[in-house]
Amino acid sequence: MQNLGITKWALAAATVLLGAVWIGSMFRGVTWRGQQNGVVIFRGAIDLFWSTVGAGKQQIWWMKAYPSPIQWWVSRDSGSASTGPWESVCIPLWMAWLPVLVATGAVWRIDFMKRKRAKDLLCAGCGYSRAGLANGQVCPECGATMS
Ligand SMILES: [Zn+2]
Questions:
Q1: Order of strands across the sheet with 37-42?
Q2: Residues 6+ apart with CB under 8 A from 142
């Protein structure tokens, strides 16, 4: 029960965070560039790129605006730069966001049902557990009836 409480808030936070990154990436991109590879989060997608030949110096770019359209689907690309041939795979962020959203919804629903069930098993009058008592039977604690 307590673990589920942590899980549901962690999932909710992940949903909000991923959603924010996804939407934010449509306006501004973030690039991390290594020796032969790099990651760009932009255009609503995460773009992994690598080249077969060692490339330029390592650098990080923040908040660079991209005019390119939003990426909705997985795409592969390749080309040639001054440093040599390169390849890239582009994965739209909604594909990562959607399962997290669905999982969050499921966990919140399970948690809600659990709470509701626990509440239904308690006497409305005094909160005493009615587990094992039939509907309509009076509460052994306060004598309240429950339909
Ligand atoms: Zn009672």
A1: 59-65, 28-33, 37-42, 45-51, 84-92, 75-81
A2: 123, 125, 126, 128
Query: How much distance in Å is there from the Cα of 116 to the middle of ligand 1?
Result: 18
- Is residue 144 within 8 Å of residue 135, measured between CB atoms? no
Q: Which residues are 138's β-sheet partners?
A: none
pLDDT digits (tens, 9 = 90+) for 39-85: 989 889 999 988 766 555 666 665 666 666 888 999 998 988 776 78
Q: How far apart are the CA of 145 and the centre of ligand 1, in A? A: 8
Q: What is the CA angle 98-29-54, rounded to 5?
A: 105
- Can you give the length of the chain in residues? 147
pTM listed for this prediction: 0.68
- Ligand 1 centre to CA of 129 (Å) is 8
At residue 8, what are phi and psi to the nearest 5 degrees? -70, -35
Residue 115 CA, ligand 1 centroid: distance in Å: 19
